[in-house]
Each structure stands twice: as C-alpha cells, then as structure tokens.
Amino acid sequence: MMEEWVHYISPDADKNTHKPKTQYNKIISAYHYPLNHETFWYANCCRHRGKPTYLRFYEIINIKLSPLTAPLCHIDYMKLNEIKVTNPYLKLPVLCYDRVRPAPLKKPFLIHANKDMAEALGLDASVLESDDFVKFVNGDLSLEGTDTFAMCYAGHQFGFFVERLGDGRAINIGTLNGLQMQLKGAGQTLYSRSGDGRAVLRSSIREYLMSEAMHGLGIETTRALAIIGSQQEVIREQWEKASIVLRVSPSWIRFGTFEYFTHSKNFKELEALADYAIEECYPHLMEEENKYVHFFTEVVGKTARLMAEWQAVGFNHGVMNTDNMSIAGVTIDYGPYAFLDEYDTNYICNHTDRNGRYSFGNQPQIGEWNLKALMVALSPLVHRERLEKILAHYGRLYRRHFLYLMGKKVGFDRSTDADFELLKHMFGMLQGLNVDYTLFFRTLSHYNGDRKALLKLGLYHKPMHDWLDDYDKRLEANEFSLEERQERMLKTNPKYVLKNYMLQEAITIAEQGDFSLVEALFKIAQDPYAEHKAFEHWALATPDAFKNKKLSCSS
Fold first, then answer.
1. Is the distance from CB of 187 to CB of 232 less than 8 angstroms?
2. Tens-place pLDDT, residues 300-319
3. Which pTM value belongs to this model?
4. Catalytic machinery residues
5. How many other CB atoms are there within 10 angstroms of residue 527's CB atom?
6. Rounded CA gap, 182 and 38, in Å?
7. Are 175 and 87 in contact (CB under 8 A)?
8. Which one, of 44, 41, 74, lies nearest residue 56 by Cα?
C-alpha cells in the first residue's frame, strides 16, 4: 500500500535539496486543503517487495496523489510469469464474496493497452504486446496467487433499497502493488441475477476511455489496464460483440457493501469489513481510537471533494446509486455518464432517470444522501449521533472545495465567499445563453479584455457583457498578471473533454474493426489541456444534432 505524507516548506527553504524545515506529517484527513498562498511539497513513499522505495517530490497545489497517479521509480518491472498477486479480501468472512472462475471469450484480441497503468502496476511494457497478455485479460491465464472471486453488496438504486446486488459481471483477479485488478465482462457470477455477466464493446470502450479521461483531468477514478474484443456475440437491444475491460482501483468496496451486512444483521461481518476497508484505504487509522469515526470522517471529506470536482468539470455520472459510490472516494462504474454540452444544471444523461434524481445539479445533494445511507450502515459500530455531527460538515466541505476549484477556473489568485455571487451570476448567464460549458472556460482562459470571442458563444450579447463587467471589476483585485492568469487558467480548463458524440464516433468505427479513434481519444484523454491540432474540431461546441443525448444503463 502506498502511504501519503506531507510537510510544509517555508518560502526560504532549499529548493535544490528539498530539505524541509519541519518534520514529515502523515496526512490524516482527506479535506485538509491549503490556502492559496501556501506551497505544499508532497513526498510519496511506498513499499516495493517489503522495502521502502523513495519516489520523488511534487510541487502541487491541492492535488492528492494516489497509487493510481504516482509513478513507480527504481523498481524492476516484471513479466507475467514473475508476477504474484494476493487476495487479501478473501480473508474476510465467506458471506462477503463468492469464488468464481472467469469464462473466457471466443477469439479474443487486444484493442488497446494502457502503458502508464502497466507502469503503475510494475509490469514490463513488452508484456502488453504478447499473446499471453491477451489470455490474461481474457481470464484464460492465471498469475501466481490468483484466486478469483466476485464481491457481494447491496445498494439503494434510485432511492429504493435492494438487499442483494453484487458483482454481476465483474470478477476480481487479485491485488498487485496495492491495486485491485478486476475483469469486467468475464462471465456470470452468483450475483448476475438474470444477466449474462458480459460487457459489450460500446460500454467497454466508454469505460476504458472515460476512466483515463477523468484521470487526465486530475479527478480520482478507477483506471483500466487494457480492453479486449472478441467474435462472441451477446444480446442487448440487438446482437453486439462482447468485450472485457481489465480495470484497476485502490478499492472496490462500495457504500452498498456496508449496507448489505447491516440490513442482514450480520454485524460480525460488518465489523470485519470496516476493519478491512480501513486497512486497505486508510491504513493510518488502524491504530487510532475511534477508528470507525475517523473512517467515516475521511469518506465524508473525500466524497465532498469528488462531488465538487465533478461539478467543476461538468461531469454527470448518471447512476449515483449507493452501490456505485466508492469508499475510497474515487469515481467508479461508468455507465450512462456525460460531460455537459451546453451548461444546464437540470441536465439528465440517463434516460432511465425519469424524475431527474441524478441530474447534473443534484449530484452534490445525492452525495450527501448516499453518505446518510452509509451512516445508517455504520451505526451498529458507532453511535449514530457521532456520525451525524460528522456528516453535518459535508455542505461546508463541498462548498469550500467547489469555490476553490471554480476560483482556479476563472483565474482568481484566491477565492472568498464573496465570489459566490459572481459565480452564481456566471452560471445563470451560461444557462440562459445555452453556452457550451467546456468551450466557455477555455475561451475565458485567453481573455485579455477583448470580448469578441466570448460574445460569439451566445446568441445574445447583453448577458455576457453584464457578467464580464462584474468579472473585470473582480480581476482588478487579482495579484496575477494577465500572462500569469492566462497560463494558470489554460492548465486548469481543458481544451477537450470526451463528450458522448466523440465516443460514439469511435464506437461506430470500432464495431467495424477500426480502433484508430480509440487510440486518438486515449491520447487526448491523457492530456486534455494540450492543443492536439489534428483534432481541433473536437474542441468546438457540440454539433446541435448530438447535444444532450440520453443513454441507457447498458451504455
């Protein structure tokens, strides 16, 4: 497991040696945000084969490193036959899982592999080009230590409790370098219910690309090592080709995993699960008194932060059921998601969500609702009143981080509560003018007082003029120079996000055997702030014919 440490360095610290003037302090809270004038130097330490391994320092403002983001240095990369995986989850009581073998696809072939993810896992890059690698992703080749299983959990789906769900089409294959590897689409499990346990090509491409896009935007997420296709067909709305994604996460435990054992009154299993989740995701809490209280505090903070990140970048998850909420605070289970085309707080990307429960604007409130469900699930371990006092801070934490992120997006050197009025004015203007969300902020990043480019984004000019008048006044208090503000904003506001029409274009030709756009979108996903001149058309507003499409849960 990777541990994260932080220390403060005063402005006159030695930047050549990075020698701190204070001792390292382990981070014990997910929501200790720096003030804008402070500099944080992050140092990450991990253990590789039992030995401490120094990574490197990062000068990052308010960015948290995780095992999915931090590169591994000074290690010997492994071939497949050198890998030994572990399965610590299987130490839990047997009610927590069911052992199951993957069912390999017929005539599998590699569509794409993620070299950066391979590096994070400690895999030699040459492995990705081998036939054995395809067999591995297909569940047809077991690594040393493999003991495959599906996890059991419950969940609130659209507000209604379902007492048993579980991994219906995901099979866990083991832990490597603190990361949990899982095959999605590898066949039926005990929890498949009436499903076939398969994933189709279109949904697999969407998850493979989108998880990397979120990572490229700096948002905590699961990632994927590879995607394979096959000649095997499965039925959805029509016959489609089956596919498997090998996805990776620091944890696959969900809010609904705790709900399962509380609802069934299996409190011994509940306590064992909580201890395991703390060891897996928050090991610094293991020896703490009241560790379950601290655990819930961490999850509240991370969830508030994640919701703020989704809102700031214009991401709509689409299915925020409690079984789709990660205890590690990462984005999981990409289904009918979407990035905003035109800004619309009421936007619904999931056509199953008829009442708009999971609309874009509702996400922060649903995050809190889901935390309340988790609070109830943890109440056999901790007095509920203590948990309620912790959850009462959610709104403040969300508001604080959202203000911080939006302040960065509009180029402020620091943000205050007074800036909320300017932001509310901005959101109202964007909604009224039907302005493309991503394009607006990228255009604003080049703003130098000339309003022509911004005025072109909307049909009517007065609302934009009115907001820019207020914005110009606020910029007068900024300590950034024009050049510094523009530089920082261009590093904050992506030029590209993977909108659904772009993904559909890649899927359409992939279904004909052409995966060139999967490769192109993957490169854009990894660096959404770059220019990518060959794909300039994807940085424009979404064409009218493709705006605000709704997707199904099989997407």
1. no
2. 999 999 999 999 999 999 99
3. 0.88
4. 323
5. 13
6. 39
7. yes
8. 44
